[in-house]
Every structure is written in structure tokens, then in C-alpha cells.
TrEMBL record:
Protein name according to UniProt: Gluconolactonase
Chain positions recorded as substrate binding sites: N160, E184
PANTHER family hit by this protein: LACTONASE DRP35 (PTHR47572:SF4), LIPOPROTEIN-RELATED (PTHR47572)
Positions with a binding annotation for a divalent metal cation: E72, N217, D268
Record's cofactor remark: Binds 1 divalent metal cation per subunit.
Single GO term (MF): hydrolase activity
Keyword NAD: no
Keywords assigned: Hydrolase, Metal-binding, Signal, Zinc
SUPFAM superfamilies recorded: Calcium-dependent phosphotriesterase
Keyword Isomerase: no
Length: 364
């Protein structure tokens, strides 16, 4: 019955399925989606022939859930075969169960949770983006443990994205988004002088590893964990991905630009596959044209580029070469690999959660 309702949802809207498990949690616009009926899916655009081996010929993009205001921070739990993701403005964490094909609220009043990760013991680690402005771990019994909420006696800014390394250290970015307005939390004055990338050691010590990026955002390690990639959200002149060499003590060196989003694109959250490729959430950066254009008798400053041509997932080689673009009808903020074989790409995109099976697996 759930699958039948889902097909009806994709074909015609939420009204006819208002009682289904997928429809009940919606608190925002529900985005209707018409999947492509042809194989291979034309939404998967190959920019370099080397990407062809990662495309599954008979796989297409699916919309799994909708009704969020700004979907972020997906993380997959293989033991339970479910995915958690944040709906930041609605201040909740959502749960997609791929066995039951259900979409429900996992946690209300989530302190505007943003990035989520799974530690080596299978516990949820979360960036609480506003209000509490801290990193927490959800224990197996449901208890919340605070891992970090201040640095050098001052409150963190707004923890954003997070990753757990194989040595159990936890790395996260701390830009200003959760305290810079009233959309993803509450406006507040920052106490830190810089926007940093932090490391929580196994002893609980918090260290500022990278301090020279303006609003660092998504982050991920290379497969061998010798390089850390970080998105600089307010890079000049464009958003960028930087790589740093990470030594055994967790220190960063040799800052190198890997990707420059020079086509008015906005890099956000991303993941690295086992071959070292970077699968990046993508969309318009919101920049306006310098000159206004006539639109029905009004002078309008339109967006640079075409947002509809930027929304989706960009895939880059380890050297930053564009390999593919997965076109979505909504801007993708973040993604992760999951599924029983680890080859299902989950994409948290504005109002909705999408998925695509690929011949790639997440590095971590």
C-alpha cells in the first residue's frame, strides 16, 4: 500500500495521499516530481568518459520524500537500514526507513540540527546549528552527550558539517549561518574571532585545526584519510574546495585549491567515494547580474547563470576535474552513500530527499 501511495504521490501531488506515512510529516511545500521513464536516465550527465563506469544503465533518480523547508545533513545507518537528515528551519531531524518506505519525524526541537554523522560504534553525532551551538552524540539508550560547545572559553559559532575519522576523532566546521539570521536558528553575536575547522580528540580535547577559511562548510576525508577537503563558502572570488594534508597528530598543512565553482555555482556538503572522487551538492550561489534587465516594464536584477542548470550534484575527480552532473529539480545541499550495498546515493535537496543507485561506494 505504501508503494502504491508513493507512485500516486509522484504522479499527482500530496492531496490524494494525505493519510500516508510519507505525507504526514510535511510542514512545508511538497514538491511534485515526475521521474524519467527512460534508461539511461538523461538526468545523469557524463562530462568525462571516465565517469561512465559509475553510472548504472538501468537506474534512475527517485524522490523518496518531500515537504521539508531546507533538507541537510543526511547520514545512513546500515544496521537499521534507515537514513536521518535535518530539516533545519522546521527544527527537526527526519527519518527515512528504506525497508518500510516510510518518512517520519525522528526528533523534534533538534536545536536546528544541521550536519549529522555516524561514529564507529553506530551512534549519531550531530551539529546543533543554533540555540545550543554544540556537538552532541546520541547514545544507544537515547541519552544526549555533549562533546563540544565552546573553544577557549567562548561559545562555538554554529556547527555545520561533521565527519568521524577511522581513529574515532571527530572533525567539524563552524561557520556563522545558524546565528546570522532567523531562518536556520536565532540571530546571535559570534564569540569566536574566526570561523574554524575543529577536531575533537579521543581524549575529548577540542583543537582548531584550520582557522584561515571564511565560513567553512562541507568537509570530507580522502579514502586514505591523509587529505581533508573543506568547502569555503565565502571564498574569493568563488566558493571553493580546499585540500589539506593531515599528519598523524591531526595537524593540517599544504593548503591547495581543488575546485573553484566559477560558473555561479554553490558548493555545499559532499562525500568522497572509494576512488577519491568528490560528489558535491550544488546549486546557484545567488549572485546577481551587475545590470538590471527589463521584465514586463520593471527593471529586475536577475540571478547570474541559470539556477535550473545548476541544481543537482557535481562529481569531480581527486584533482578537481568535472566528471558528471546529476541534474535535480531542486538545489542539493548535502548527500551521502547508503543502501544495503553502500551504492545508493541519497541527496538532501531543498524540500525533498532523492536517491540514485550508482556503481560507486562511499569511502567512509
Amino acid at each position: 500500500m505504501v508503494e502504491a501511495s508513493r507512485r500516486h504521490l509522484l504522479a499527482g501531488g500530496l492531496a490524494a495521499v494525505a493519510g500516508s506515512a510519507l505525507a504526514r510529516p510535511a510542514l512545508a511545500q511538497a514538491f511534485p516530481f515526475k521521474p524519467n521513464q527512460r534508461y539511461p536516465d538523461p538526468a545523469v550527465e557524463i562530462l568525462d568518459p571516465s565517469f561512465a563506469k559509475y553510472r548504472i544503465y538501468s537506474s534512475s533518480i527517485e524522490q523518496l520524500a518531500t515537504g521539508m523547508r531546507w533538507a541537510e545533513g543526511p547520514v545512513y545507518f546500515p544496521q537499521g537500514r534507515y537514513l536521518l537528515l535535518s530539516d533545519i528551519p522546521n527544527n527537526r531531524i527526519m527519518k527515512y526507513d528504506e525497508v518500510k518506505n516510510s518518512f517520519t519525524v525522528f526528533r523534534e526541537n533538534a536545536n536546528y540540527a544541521n550536519g549529522n554523522a555516524r561514529d564507529r560504534q553506530g551512534r549519531l553525532v550531530t551539529c546543533e546549528h543554533s540555540v545550543t551551538r554544540r556537538i552532541t552524540r546520541t547514545e544507544k539508550n537515547g541519552k544526549i552527550t555533549v562533546l563540544a560547545d565552546s573553544y577557549e572559553g567562548k561559545r562555538l559559532n554554529a556547527p555545520n558539517d561533521i565527519v568521524v575519522k577511522s581513529d574515532d576523532t571527530i572533525w567539524f566546521t563552524d561557520p556563522l549561518f545558524g546565528i546570522s539570521g532567523e531562518w536556520e536558528g536565532f540571530r546571535a553575536k559570534p564569540e569566536q574571532a574566526t570561523t574554524n575547522v575543529y577536531r575533537i580528540g579521543t581524549d575529548g580535547k577540542l583543537t582548531a585545526v584550520i582557522t584561515d577559511l571564511l565560513n567553512p562548510n562541507g568537509l570530507a576525508f580522502s579514502p586514505d584519510e591523509k587529505k581533508l577537503y573543506v568547502v569555503e563558502w565565502r571564498g574569493t572570488p568563488n566558493r571553493s574546495i580546499w585540500s589539506y594534508d593531515i599528519d598523524a597528530q591531526g595537524k593540517a598543512a599544504n593548503k591547495t585549491k581543488v575546485v573553484d565553482a566559477a560558473d555561479f555555482g554553490a558548493l555545499d556538503g559532499f562525500r568522497v567515494d572509494r576512488d577519491g572522487n568528490l560528489w558535491c551538492g550544488y546549486g546557484s550561489n545567488g549572485a546577481l547580474n551587475a545590470e538590471a534587465a527589463d521584465a514586463g516594464g520593471r527593471k529586475v536584477f536577475s540571478l547570474r547563470g541559470k539556477p535550473e542548470d545548476l541544481d543537482g550534484v557535481m562529481v569531480f575527480s581527486p584533482a578537481g576535474k568535472p566528471l558528471a552532473f546529476i541534474r535535480l529539480p531542486e538545489r542539493c545541499a548535502n548527500l551521502c552513500f547508503g543502501g544495503p550495498k553502500g551504492n545508493r546515493l541519497y541527496m538532501a535537496s531543498s524540500h525533498s530527499l532523492y536517491a540514485l543507485y550508482v556503481e560507486a561506494h562511499g569511502a567512509v
